[in-house]
Design a protein that fits this description.
This protein is α+β, with helices and mostly antiparallel strands. It is 49% helix and 19% strand.
Length: 448
């Protein structure tokens, strides 16, 4: 067997594969013998079908399958062993393939069109400095987070007298239409002129109000009456609410019970420790966000400073063929710039990973998934029972083959390891900024 690469241009090549009978015939003969042992044909004992019968019936299809298998292995092995920077997939030359005489097999010659990236070097130490931000997390940010947590773990209480923000429950009636329902009226959705009727209400009070002149939005009328929003305009006149209960959402107090709910039992034992832990979590969250921004800026620096050419027309044709029916040529043209950037970035990262001999192991993938799940569920603590639950969820997530979650997480872990290598070699310009400045930067509203 002979495999020969011919460069047609810096980004296009042909890979020619020549096969002699000695390359494929032994494999064909072995497959024919295996068939004769497995195939059941009328008139022959099981496992005793003569080879010449198998050859006559299945010989051509066996030959085609074996030759295609040899070709596939030859092409992938050559590309891997010679580190050819192939982009897209090798495309068989149909004209050359049609010349093959399968009825009188002898020497075969096949050709594949390849798209290749131009040679490039990655010298991370020569990249310009990339800004790396640290965020100043002050007491204001801590207090905002504490308020949010207290609302998230809030309790409902039932005061005797209503205030703004309460829900007033009771029986709603309109005598003239014999309408009656049990409902809850949110005081936050009352207009300013109507507030005085519902603020200060207590159990047993009867409140009379005009259904169309009380609420700030029609959706509130629909909610209170149980009517469809499109039917609200038909309602009119005075309604009465007989108050049966008042419910108020009270922010959680900074108690040990609250600390345990947020962080898990036994994590902290005082308000001071709780605030320290929350502040640590806030800083950790912002650290992840600054890392994401750093990643974006590093990737931009890589693309801006490492020149790689790829065969645009070849890739557009390949994308159109492999995604036949999913994307039009126009859609491919519109999205090609983003695809091209992603492809070049992948080539750069793969070269870095190859030099550093990066490997990704299953325990790393599982641990990454655990942390991702904890973040999604808003779990801050790390008690044993919660760890067991998170482990089960993480393992189930990775086992979902339909969504190919394992590959997705593998790629993220691989990407993180490559980024760590880049970070250790790229010069960074360390800057401390306020939260508001960072939020603006993260949205890309300031051009660096």
């Amino acid at each position: 067997m002979e495999v020969l690469l011919e460069k047609n241009s810096p980004t296009l090549a042909s890979l020619k594969v020549k096969l002699t009978k000695d390359d494929y015939q032994p494999k064909v003969d072995k497959t024919v013998k295996d068939y004769s042992k497995r195939v059941n044909l009328k008139g022959f004992r099981p496992g005793k079908v003569p080879s010449h019968v198998i050859q006559r019936m299945y010989g051509k299809s066996i030959l085609v399958d074996e030759v295609n298998s040899i070709l596939s292995n030859a092409v992938s092995t050559y590309i891997r062993d010679n580190k050819v920077q192939v982009v897209g997939d090798p495309i068989p030359n149909r004209e050359k393939a049609e010349e093959a005489n399968w009825d009188k097999p002898g020497d075969f010659e096949f050709s594949y069109d390849l798209g290749v990236a131009t040679d490039f070097d990655v010298n991370l130490s020569e990249l310009p400095a990339v800004k790396r931000y640290s965020i100043n997390v002050d007491d204001n940010e801590l207090n905002k987070t504490l308020d949010s947590l207290r609302e998230r773990f809030a309790d409902n209480i039932h005061p005797e007298v209503s205030e703004l923000g309460d829900m007033v429950f009771g029986e709603l009636k309109q005598e003239s239409t014999e309408f009656t329902t049990n409902t809850a009226i949110p005081t936050k959705q009352l207009n300013e002129d109507s507030l005085s009727k519902f603020i200060g209400a207590k159990k047993g009070d009867v409140i009379t109000f005009d259904i169309q002149n009380t609420f700030t939005e029609e959706s509130a009328i629909a909610h209170v009456t149980g009517k469809k929003k499109e039917d609200v305009s038909e309602l009119s006149g005075e309604y009465t609410l007989t108050v049966e209960d008042v419910t108020r959402t009270a922010s959680a107090e900074l108690t040990q019970e609250f600390f345990d709910k947020v962080l898990g039992p036994g994590q902290v034992e005082s308000e001071e420790q709780f605030k320290e832990k929350v502040l640590e979590i806030i800083k950790g969250n912002y650290e992840r966000e600054t890392e994401a921004l750093l990643r974006r800026d590093i990737e931009t620096a890589l693309l801006d400073n490492i020149a790689i050419d790829v065969p645009a027309d070849f890739l557009k044709d390949w994308l159109e063929k492999t995604n036949e029916g999913k994307f039009t040529r126009e859609q491919i043209e519109e999205q090609f710039e983003d695809f091209q950037k992603s492809l070049k970035l992948s080539l750069i990262k793969n070269k870095i990973a190859d030099v550093a001999a990066i490997k990704v192991e299953y325990p790393e993938i599982l641990n990454f998934t655990r942390e991702m799940m904890k973040g999604q569920f808003g779990i801050y603590g790390d008690d044993e029972s919660m760890r067991e639950t998170i482990d089960r969820v993480a393992q189930g997530y990775l086992a979902d083959k339909e969504r190919d979650n394992y590959t997705s997480i593998f790629n993220q872990v691989f990407d993180n390891k490559v980024l760590e290598i880049i970070r250790n070699q790229v010069t960074t310009d360390e800057q401390t900024i306020e939260v508001s400045e960072f939020e603006t930067l993260a949205k890309g509203e300031i051009q660096e």
